[in-house]
Amino acid sequence: MAEVPLVQVAVPDGGVTGEVLRLDEPLSFWGGLDSATGEVIDRHHPQSGTSVAGRVLVMPHGRGSSSGSSVLAEAARCGTAPLAIVMVEPDAIVALGAIVADELYGVGVPVVLVSVDELAGLSTGGRVHIGSDGSVLRL
Amino acid sequence: MRIVVRLAEALGAESLLDVSGAHIDSCLFHGRASLDFAERLVEEGAEVAVPTTLNVSSLDLLHPDLFRGDAEHGRLAARLMDAYVSMGCRPTWTCAPYQLEERPAFGEQVAWAESNAIAFANSVLGARTDRYGDFVDICAAITGRAPAAGLHLDENRLATVVFRLGDLPPDLLDSHVLAPVLGAFLGHRTGSRVPVVAGLEEPPGEDWLKSLGAAAASRGSVGMFHVVGATPEAPTLEAALGGRPPVEEVVVTLDDLRRARDDLTTAARDTLATVSLGTPHYSVAEFGRLVEALGGRRVHPDVDMYVSTGRGVLAEVEERGWAGKLQEAGVQVVTDTCTYVTPILADTVGTAMTDSGKWAYYAPGNLGVGVVFASTSECVESAVAGRVVLDELLWAPAGERFGDG
User: Fold this and answer.
1) What is the pTM of this model?
2) Inter-chain touch B31–A77, beta carbons under 8 Å
């Protein structure tokens, strides 16, 4: 098995900079995210009601429904997707949504992996720069 | 193929492997992106290379009047369904493809989407699929290839977390309601690891394992689980663990389960508007138990009762003469879709009851309804009574029960 690359879905040249939304629990995009508004609608989720739109979404791993890819791609089409997604574990459902958003609409939602320790250092409201090599820098 | 390869790269797979079947979740309409993707494939002349089944859609083609969504949404959803059928997929429209006659054999490599079906295929059938999402499911069906990664590979199928059932009341151990509640607890505590359940005296049947897997896959990211003595890769605890010590061992107590059960309830427990069963799709055996539990009684006029199932199972239920009995009782059977993925419920203001951990989990966000989670028999008794009727005795510690005498 080759190593899992840290950059799951490409980060554009020059990287992206944005504000962190760190989720206390992983989010299933399907049943958990309203693609029309970017709002977290999972009523069991501690951050229900928060918007992910345009923010750097940080969570340890993906969760739940396999329809999550469609909701992420639709959110990208509607302009309500996260600016980027940062996780510890690779997740096919999250990666797929981002890949298809790119293939269909040319809208990139970069997905990168970090270590558990790096994840712990990212808190909501902080600003980060994600480099095209997948590095996540706190600003 | 480019999408399969891009995913393989993201997962760090060195190669692709052949799959002999696929189950597609992308046929459920989530907006324009769903349709843009499918129609692009159709335009390019795509056809599936392996036998491929279709998951629930947004419409009940056998009972089209049940759809209460806007007409334009309905038309786009129908176009999406047509697109997948035109690529050669079988119009099975079920989230329980493992209830169809042809299902994958032990060890067979497949590409399945739909979280409950993934958990069932891996855990109960011993077939091998990773947790596939929308889009790649159809790409794998067209190419007959999938990344050699995740749950396709031996080493990733071994359990790393042991859930040992503690001292639980015997009635609860016998009740089907244990499955979705334990599943929700497992999902919450397991994350994306592979759990093994130890301590069940009697090996549970397929419907029990279906309910457990569906709840675990909604509450967590469980793509595979073992139940010692019941699932094919867990003849013993040691076999499920592959001879390695577990990373974590959890003793499941009655308090844990009561909390997990309470977490599935979001509504006040007085008035009742809806009872929804059949998530995942009801099996023939479950219909049999439902008809028996109703015992010729009628659903209360203030309550709408729905049961979702596949059209294949409905045909069998009709043949057995149960469909007529359910109709007489006032039960609405829903096929091809499910009551929590599309606008079907007549009343989304009043309380809804369900025996499904998965429905309980998603319905509040998807439909805006308040949910009371309960056992199947509590759901049936409540539907008949027209109000929420719960049997707390099932959840009482063994000692307290004598005091109730």
Assistant:
1) 0.92
2) yes
Domain assignment present for B400: no
Using the beta-carbon criterion (under 8 Å), do B7 and A35 form an inter-chain contact? no
pLDDT tens digits for B11-24?
A: 888 899 999 999 99
Q: B 20-79 residues with CB below 8 A of A? A: 25-26, 28, 30-34, 36-37, 40
**For residue B403, is it within any domain?**
no
* B244 lies in the same domain as B339: no
Asked if residue B22 lies in contact with residue B118, where contact means CB atoms within 8 angstroms, the answer is no
Task: For residue A9, list its beta bridge partners.
Answer: A111
How many angstroms separate the CA atoms of B381 and A138, rounded? 56
CA-based nearest distance A10→chain B, Å: 10
List of chain A residues whose C-beta atoms are within 8 Å of the C-beta of residue B6: 99
Is A90 in contact with B134 (Cβ distance < 8 A)?
A: no
pLDDT reading at B403 higher than 60: no
Instruction: Say what the pLDDT of residue A6 is.
Output: 84
ipTM: 0.86
pLDDT tens digit string along B323-347?
999 999 999 999 999 998 899 999 8
Q: How far is A77 from chain B (nearest CA, A)?
A: 7
Tell me how far the alpha carbon of residue B359 is from its chain's centroid: 9
A65 is catalytic: yes
Query: Are B141 and B188 found together in one domain?
Result: no
Is the minimum CB–CB distance between B136 and chain A shorter than 8 Å? Answer: yes
Tens of pLDDT, residue by residue over B129-161, are 998 889 999 999 999 999 999 999 999 999 999
| CA–centroid distance for B35 within its chain | 24
pLDDT value at residue B269? 66
In-domain check, residue B268: no
Domains of chain A and CATH, by start = 7-138 (3.50.30.10)
Q: Which of B28, B136, B263 sits opposite A96 (nearest CB)?
A: B136
Would you call the peptide bond into B280 cis, given omega within 30 degrees of 0 as the criterion?
yes
C-alpha B401: how far from chain center: 33
Overall average pLDDT of the A24-44 stretch: 91
Give the count of domains, chain B.
3
Range of the domain at B247: 158-263
Determine whether the interchain pair B10/A111 forms a contact, defined as Cβ–Cβ distance below 8 Å.
yes
Looking at the DSSP assignment, which residues form a beta bridge with residue B352? B274, B371
